[in-house]
Design goal:
The chain is of the alpha+beta class and 330 residues long. The chain has two domains: 258 residues, CorA soluble domain-like (Beta Polymerase, domain 2, 2-Layer Sandwich); 60 residues, Methane Monooxygenase Hydroxylase, Chain G, domain 1. The protein is 60% helix and 16% strand. The protein contains ten helices and seven strands. Strands 2-1-3-7-6-5-4 form a seven-stranded mixed sheet. A hairpin with a 5-residue loop joins β1 and β2. α3 packs antiparallel against α4 and α9 packs antiparallel against α10. The longest helix has 63 residues. The relative contact order is 0.08.
Amino acid sequence: MDTPVSKSMVANCAAYGADGRKVRDITLDEISDFLEQPSGFVWVGLVEPDEPLLEKLQEEFGLHELAVEDAHSAHQRPKIESYGDSLFIVAQTAQTTDGNIAFGETHLFVGKRYLLSVRHGASQTYAPARKACEQTPEHLALGPSYALYSVLDFIVDNYLPIVQDFRQELQDLEHDVFSDVSNRDVTRRLYDMQRELLTLKLAATPLQDILGQLVRLHPEVVRDEVRPYFRDVQDHVTRVSDAINSMREMLGAAMNVNLSLITVRQNEVVKRLAGWAALLAAPTLLASWYGMNFHDMPELAKPYAYPTIIGLTAVVCITLFIVLKRAKWL
């Protein structure tokens, strides 16, 4: 299991003592040996592991085969499942990449003396969360449940900048709705943002139930001292979910306003076309009368007839232009 490929899949594998201080980095083969000791726990982080690596961890930790199967296949919905004295948690992660939102998954196996995280897709490394825990060993002495809190808190904290970016983009879109920017572009941006917000909502909202269970249930894994920390993360998720809901409502209103403005602008174009058509109808009518070539046309033989018709046509056109301009049809 110490092949180069396997090492690239193992982000960290460390043992911690009962006092919360890091003992040392250990190999995967040493996990079961360390767990035989009376105290301490193991924290392992994997990135896109293959099936043999997961089978190795299943053997070392005694993981349930169904949970391991879910962790290998990925594409799971956010959930929490209990397998005896251990928990299997799926959380969706979000990350901004080149101006676009990319989503991934993190699968968490937590027991009385271990925490195993498995990252799939877009997800930032959990090294900052692990480092913060190691700097406060009195908290890490609470065991794997506190390490679990650190990872979930890190995932939720990564939602907040994305929500802020969405809020700023929404303000820009609201400005563009009332500007001369192409309505097709604005409509497309509104639709794309609504789709990404929906995906973020599907990632964040289920965490409320997961954290609610960690606050109230599973005493075999979660220590009572850690429950207030999970409650704090639950509050953060609730804020994110509320912000997403409010922005989705504002997006819906912006889309309705944008479509209404498109209709208004189309009506303005139709009115202008109708105004110019009416303006051209008067000279067309007079010209068609005098173009029928009848012998007994009124004033046909009089020398002032042609200038009179031209003047009459000009007066009618000018009058219609003034009337239509005042009516804002031109």
